[in-house]
Amino acid sequence: MTTLRHVPSVGAGVDRVDGPAKVTGAAAYPGDVHYPDLAHAALVRSTIAAGRVRAITTDAAEAVPGVLAVLTHANAPRVERAPDTALGAAPPPPLRDDRIIHHGQYLAVVVAETAEAANEAARLVRVDYEPAEALLDPHDPRAETLTDPARLDTARGDAATALASADVLVEATYTTPEETNNPLGPFTTVAAWDGTALTVHDSTQWPYAVRAALARAFDVPENGVQVLARHVGGGFGAGLRVWPHVVLAALAARVTGRPVRLELTRPQMFTGVGHRPSTVQRVRIGATRDGDLVGVEHESTSVTAIEDDTIEPAAAGTSNAYACPNVATRDRAVRLHLPSPGPMRAPGEAQGNFALECALDELAHELRMDPLQLRLRNHADVQQTSGLPWSSNALRDAYEQGAARFGWHRRTPDPGSMRDGRWLVGLGMAGVTFPWYQQPCRARASMDLRGTALVRSAVTDIGTGTATVMTQLAADLLGLPLARVRFDLGDTDMPMAPQAGGSGLTGALGSAVHAACRQLVEAFLDLVWDDPGSPLRGLGPADVTVAEGRIHRTGQPALGESYTDILARHGVHELTADGDSAPPRPEDIGMAPAGAFGARFVEVRVDPSLGLLRVSRVVTAVDAGRVLNAKTATSQIVGGTVGGIGMALMERTERDPGTGRVADATLGDYLVPVHADVPEMEVLFVGGPDPVNPAGTKGVGEIGLVGVAAAVANAVFHATGRRVRDLPITVEDLL
Ligand code: MOS
C-alpha cells in the first residue's frame, strides 16, 4: 500500500467554494427568492425628524390597482420589541404609535401585486405632521447624555495626576463623521406564513437573532420560524441588528395572507440599517522626555438615537493598546433625533484608533522621536487591563517586518522634507491592537455512504469566505479532499450560530467545526469498537489518523479502512455528530485571549498647489494567528484597507442640519474609493496559531480597516506639516 498522506488544505489560497455560483448568478440572494403568489411591499418614511403623525391619509394609495393593504400605526397590529442580543437592545418596533423620532422612520408599508404598484401607492400616502423641535446637533446642550450604559469605561492608576506632572503633554480633539455601511446588496426580506409557521429569507449577518426577534414580535414559537440567509450581498455590520423593515415584511405577509418581498432602496439603506455614528474624541497623552508613556486619557462622545442604548466603544480600545500605568477611557453618547446607529466594520476601534494613533504621532513629533520607535518602546507586553499574558502577540514582528517591507528607514523625520517633483511625499504609520471576541457556537458534521461530508451551522457568509475556510478546515479534520466536503449554512434549522461579526466567527465556528469533526471520527470508532472485521477495533481517537477518506492506526496506514466501508458493512446510511464551542474564560486559561494585531505603513502624495491627496502605497502586517486561507484572509485585509482609505479621505454621511435628512443617500453622492483611489497594497501575515481556539485563528474581518485613517493623517502631516484632526481629510484641508 502506498503511504497515506493528507495534503492539508488549510493555509492554501483556495478559491471560494461559492465563487462559481456567485459569478454565474446561480447563488440565490434574498432578493432572488420567488413564490408563485408573491406580493411586494414599499415603505413610506417620515420627512421630519421629530414630532407626531397628526393624520395619515391612505385613500389614494389604496385606490391604486393591485394594492392589497396599506398599513400604518392606525391599523397595523402591534408587535413586540425584539429581545436583547449580545449587541444590546433591539431598535424600537415599527408602526407602534404616532411618535416620530427620526427622519426616515417608517410610517407606512404598502403591499401590492407588483413592486411598481406598491411604490406608486407609497408615493400617494399623505402624512399630516405635527413637527416638534428636533435635536440634531451633538453639541446641543438639551441632548441627553448617556454615561457608560454598557460599562465600557476603564481606569487604572491615576491618569489625571500623571498627566499633570508629565514632561511632555499632547492634548488634542479629533472628530470622525457619521458614515454609512453601504453593502452592495440592498437588504431584502421575503416573508411567508403558513398558519403560525413563518419562513423568512433575509439579508442578515445573524439568522438566529432574526428568528428570535420575529418569534417575539408575533408571539409564535422560535422553532416555528425559519430564517434563511444562504447568500448575503455584504453587510459591513449593517446586518447585525434586526431592523424594523424585517418585522414589517413579516407583518405585511401576515395581514395580507401572501408571501411578501420587501427590498430596501439605496436611500433607505442610509436610514434603516444603522450607521457608524460620529464621534468627538479628546485625547491627552503624557510622556517622559525619553518617550515612556506615563498617562493617557481618552474620552469619546458618539451619537445614539432617542430610543436606543447603543454606544460606540471608541475610547475603550485605548485601555489595552500600550503599556502605561495610568489610563482612563470614557465612552459617552448623546441622544439625537437620528436613526439608530449600528455596528460598522470595526465599530469604535476604527474611530478610537484614529484619535489615539494620531495623538501618538503628535507626541513623537514633540519628542523628536521616530513614531515607530515610540510604539515599540511602549509595546504592551501583557494585556494592560488584566495583567495577563497575551495568548499570542506578534505585534513587534508586525512592526519590524512591515517597516522593512515598506522601507520605513528611508523616512526623513522633518515634515515636508520628502519630495517627488511637484508632489510632497509623506510616510505615516499606525499600530493596531484589536479586541478578542467570541460567542458560543454549534456545528454538525455528517458522513454518508458516498463518502461525502456535510458540515453545517446556521451562520452567514457575508462575502468574507467563511464557507470556504470551514470547508478547508473540515477537509483536514476528516482527512478528505476538498471536493468531498460541503459546508452548508444560512438556515436556522441548522445548529445555533452567533453573528458573522466582531471578527469572532472564524474562531467560534472553527472551534465548533473542529469539535464536530472530532466527534464524527469518534462515532465511526464507536461503530467498529467491537467489530472483529475492522482493523480499527478497540481504538480510540488518540490512536488514529485520518487521510484519503480513511481512518487508520497512526503510523500504520495499512491498518485502517474507509468511512464508506465502515458504513456499508454496518448497514448505516449516514453518521452525524454535533460539536460545540464556547469562549474560554481568561481566568481559567491564565492568559488574555488576543485579537489580531497590526502595523500599518502608508505613503501619501500631496500636491500643495491643488490640495490633491493620493494614497500611493500601503503595507500592512497582521498577526491574525493561523491563517486558514491566504487568499481570503489577504482579501479581508485589502478590502478593509479600501474601507479605511474611504474613512480617511471620502466617507461622510451628510445630514441637512435643519431636518436631519441625509443629503447624500446614494452611491453617486456618498463617496467611497474606486480603483483609481486605491494604490498597491501589500499584506504580510506574521505570528502563528493562537492557542485559545483549536482552529488557531484570531479573526481578520475588521482589523483591515483599522489604522488606515491614522496612518494617512500621520503621513499627511509628514508630507505637509498640517495636522488634520477631523475626518475625512479633503482638498479644503490641504489648500
Ligand atoms: Mo462587523 S461591524 O462585526 O460586521
UniProtKB/TrEMBL annotation:
Keyword terms: Molybdenum, Oxidoreductase
Gene3D superfamilies reported for this sequence: Aldehyde oxidase/xanthine dehydrogenase, a/b hammerhead, Aldehyde oxidase/xanthine dehydrogenase, molybdopterin binding domain
All residue ranges annotated as the Aldehyde oxidase/xanthine dehydrogenase a/b hammerhead domain in the record: 24-133
InterPro entries given in the database record: Ald_Oxase/Xan_DH_a/b, Ald_Oxase/Xan_DH_a/b_sf, Ald_Oxase/xanthine_DH-like, AldOxase/xan_DH_MoCoBD1, AldOxase/xan_DH_MoCoBD2, AldOxase/xan_DH_Mopterin-bd_sf
Enzyme class: oxidoreductase
Documented EC number(s): 1.17.1.4
SMART domains on file: Ald_Xan_dh_C
Name of the protein described by the UniProt record: Xanthine dehydrogenase YagR molybdenum-binding subunit
Species of the source: Allostreptomyces psammosilenae
Source species taxonomy: Bacteria, Bacillati, Actinomycetota, Actinomycetes, Kitasatosporales
